[in-house]
Amino acid sequence: MPAPRLATRAVIVENQRLLLVNAYADPSSTLWCAPGGGVVAGHSLPDNLIREVHEETGLAIRVGPPCLINEFHAPETGFHQVEIFFRCTLVAGRLSADWQDPEAVVTRRRWVTRAEMTSLRVKPDSLAAVAFQRGMGYDPLEEILRA
Fold it and tell me: Does the pTM of the predicted model rise above 0.85?
């Protein structure tokens, strides 16, 4: 069985709104997540996250402390990912409909309130609670959701 993939994700809250991006490149997918992605070996977790957030959103961030650890897997394929979420602050930029993710995965970005999150499909389940409160959370291994 392959080793788990390590990823970093950004919890960016501005004006009581959390930044979310589409989780799958499939335009029909309704699943949302925090921006971020896979870690490149030899680079720090914050440096990986700064790169991923810029690629997906065009925004520049400052990485703060970790606030959530999440892991998920796809039993049928053996895929297993461990994600470390960091509280981040926006340093520069704003969302633009013209921004293009070089990997063509993220095509939609949006700021949402905690109330708006209740009507969206968002992973991990604890993201809203962690984003809008202090402290740290851990989501135990859960099965991956498909687009």
Answer: yes
